[in-house]
Amino acid sequence: MKEIILNTVVKVCTYDELSAADTQLVDAAREAAKKSYAPYSRFNVGAAVLLDSGEIVTGSNQENAAYPSGLCAERTTLFCAGAQHPDKAVEAIAIAARTADGEIETPISPCGACRQVMLETEMRSSRPMRIILYGAQQCHIIEGGTKELLPLSFGAEFLENV
Ligand code: THU
């Protein structure tokens, strides 16, 4: 039997080691986390996307008393960017989170549903996005795009011959 080995490359660095462009995007995500509406989980997440026009779109998680009606920061942001700028590619996304104790120390990673939306966003523009995950002690950078986080994924190609 053959095996498929899946490799994900994650660069680890501190906030101070980020490039100026990544710092700007991360800071936008950190600010967005402060605008999160998360009265149920009290887990505030912010996201910021950099478009190929240079514009930055931000968003945060938006919860609801009917829990499944809420939405993660990443999808709120990507859908907002897609709705406002349908023809612009997303070059990068930064994600940051905080609780009542302040900013989290190690970065969170997008949930499966958000990864699926990130993948579709990349498909629309044929361009992988740079993913920057912020933590106060440590940041993670994924340069290879969403396939690094969501290998063996389902995409539009499976629907082509239906
Ligand atoms: N959440 C996000 O917004 N992004 C993530 O990457 C993980 C989880 C939100 C969903 C919910 O509002 C809260 O964080 C707790 O799961």
The figure for the number of domains is 1
Distance between the termini: 30 Å
The secondary-structure class comes to alpha+beta
Radius of gyration over C-alpha positions, nearest whole angstrom: 16 Å
The helix content, as a percent range, equals: 10-25%
Low-confidence stretches: none
Count the E strands: 7
Bulk shape: globular
Oligomer: single chain
Q: In sequence order, what are the helices and strands, one letter per element?
A: EHEEHEEHEE
Main beta sheet: 7 strands, mixed
- Per DSSP, the total helix count is 3
* CATH H-level homologous superfamily name: Cytidine Deaminase, domain 2
**What is the class in the CATH system?**
Alpha Beta
Task: Identify the notable features of this structure and list them briefly.
single chain; 162 residues; alpha+beta; Cytidine Deaminase, domain 2; seven-stranded mixed beta sheet; 3 helices; 22% strand; globular; binds tetrahydrodeoxyuridine
Describe the structure.
This protein has 162 residues and is an alpha+beta fold. It has a single domain, classed as 3-Layer(aba) Sandwich (Cytidine Deaminase, domain 2). It has helices spanning 20-33, 73-84, 112-125; strands spanning 11-13, 44-51, 56-60, 90-99, 102-103, 130-133, 139-142. Strands 1, 2, 3, 4, 5, 6 and 7 form a 7-stranded mixed β-sheet that branches. Helix 2 (73-84) runs parallel beside helix 3. Tetrahydrodeoxyuridine (THU) binds next to helix 2.
Quick overview:
This protein has helices at residues 20-33, 73-84, 112-125, and strands at residues 11-13, 44-51, 56-60, 90-99, 102-103, 130-133, 139-142. With 162 residues, the protein is α+β, with helices and mostly antiparallel strands. It is globular and about 50 Å long.
